[in-house]
Amino acid sequence: MNTHKQQVTFVVGEDRRLSEVISRTEIEPLLRSLVKTGPVWAAILDEDGLPLCNYGSDSHLEQFHEIRHPLLVEGEPQGTLVIVFDPAACTAASELALLVRDALQLTVTNNLKRMLTTEMHTTVVQESYDQLVETNKQLVESEKRYRELALSLEHKVNERTDELQKVYSRMLQQEKLAAVGGLAAGMAHEINNPNGFIRSNLVTFIRYFERMRDMLDFYQMQIAANTPLHQLQLETGQKRSELKLDYVINDAYELLKQSIEGTDRIARIVADFKSFSHVDESGDSDADLNVELEQTLSVLAPQIPPGAVILKDLQPLPLVGCNPGLFSQAFLNIIQNSIQSRTDGLEICISSRSTDDEIVIRIADNGCGISAANLLRIFEPFFTTREVGSGTGMGLTVAREIVRTAGGNIEIDSREGSGTVVYIRLPQNGQLRQAMIKGEI
């Protein structure tokens, strides 16, 4: 019996420096919040001992104590967290240092995962492009044979149409995977925020529990020693004050309350992502496109730059017979383009309205706009003005095909430097059914 073994090749990229994985904008808020809690100075040093970011007063640092924690990149020390503090003014410096170290390490790990996802996505898109080039070559060769085989033309056309449909299906699936990869990184960050303070609360609650246990042990020891009631009341009161149990009881309640709110927040994030993906649904159904827009904005929230303004004017809409999951994908592709069109002062206006004949959804931004030359090519597959690896060039192509499948169309009005307006027009269900009967769709 012949045994075939599959060979697996592992490709290891070059080592990354800490400065390539985490940015100053991610480090500075943590150091700022740390210094506000007690330490006088905090810094992140790279593998060469040079500061990536520091915060606080650096005068008279030699008078204070110092804590150092290594930061790992792919399992190797590539940097150091340094905290300088006054022991008399900051008694919890060690715990604060560990908490910030864990937060920084988690950010480094998540950034590495996102970088790996981007590299894998670029590889998949390139492979898909090579496959399409080869398929196109085969179609050109087939065209010559079709002229020679006129009697079998219909059969051959149907055959090639099936092949193209399969290729398009693969392209659509790859675009979905690319979107999910980007969303997953943002969702991970959103979930890690409440998860971080939940973990911190639980660590504090363990210390509170140990104090309560100490109080209970002391009380039982006094009872076993037949301590007189007056003395028992006096000594247990002193012990209670020593352990600060009044504060512990009150704070423990707040810690648990905050932790419950954090788990509720995580549940909402997961629910929004699940609703957006329509993982429990399949095929066409009657959908409220306002709901799909709201869900899309919820999952895109981590990608919206700070200070951006999202204006909504969503008028009541009739239900539309469509595939809700695909329409969410179309909205995602369009709104993502608006989010990426500008970093500072971004404003996005999303509106919807219904007339007797059609449903109109308008998505406008004040971003960089599109040049006249590029405006003619925006629906071409793989056409993109972004850097290699930053976009597939399939977003608007897929969005237009999704809207066309529902009997609608997409119009884009844009000028370079003056923002972009996207109109999605869909016929009312009655007009859509009449068009289908007439064979117009």
Could you explain the architecture of this structure?
The protein has 441 residues and is α+β, with helices and mostly antiparallel strands. The protein has three domains: 18-113, 2-Layer Sandwich (Beta-Lactamase); 149-277, no CATH class; 284-382 and 393-438, Histidine kinase-like ATPase, C-terminal domain (Heat Shock Protein 90, 2-Layer Sandwich). It is built from eleven helices and eleven strands. Helix 3 runs antiparallel to helix 4 and helix 8 (324-339) packs antiparallel against helix 10. The chain is elongated. The two termini are 56 Å apart.
CATH architecture of the largest domain: 2-Layer Sandwich
By helix and strand content, what is the structural category? alpha+beta
Note the run of SSEs as H and E: HHEEEEHHHHEHEEHEEHHEEH
Q: If you average the pLDDT, what whole number results? A: 78
- Major β-sheet strand ordering: 6-8-9-11-10
Q: How many H/I helices? A: 11
Number of domains: 3
Please identify the top-level CATH class of the largest domain: Alpha Beta
